[in-house]
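Appendix B, record 7
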Amino acid sequence: MIALGPWSNDLLSKLNCKLPMAYERGYRQHFSSTTEQPLSRPVHDVDGSYVLTPMEQGYRITSGVELKERDAPPSPNQLEAVIPSARQAFPLGQPLDKPWLGRRPTLPDALPAIGEVKQCPGLWLATGHHHIGFSTGPATGQLIAQLMSEQDTDIAPQAFSPNRFF
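Structure tokens (predicted):
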């Protein structure tokens, strides 16, 4: 079973089963709050191109997706560009950390690769979930367990077959 997100191809390439994976990179940074009554829910400022989420220590701000090589040097330009707009609208205090960079695997058809690889019998994949791996992980786990144990599946798995790329 390979379920290594953006690092899945590191193992797959050794088996000549490399997926056509691209990488969605996203940045976030935490800020203290300068008010006694912080936000009570996340806010998506479409015009400002950011999401601001209340956290225990203050606020977390995130910006859009950057498509780059997985290991390219960080370039938090998008994040830095939205912080002034967020400061105008919300009581952001001082940064509590440096910008964090997350890498997510994305496949050309926007569907994850879930299932057995026919050219490598016994090799199962569960990867390529884009930005929704945490929320789709439980359903993926259930589906892969049903497939591996040859049970009836709760959903039709054909669209997720990794064999569409091999």
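Remarks on this record: The mean pLDDT is 94. Helices lie at 8-12, 77-89, 133-148.
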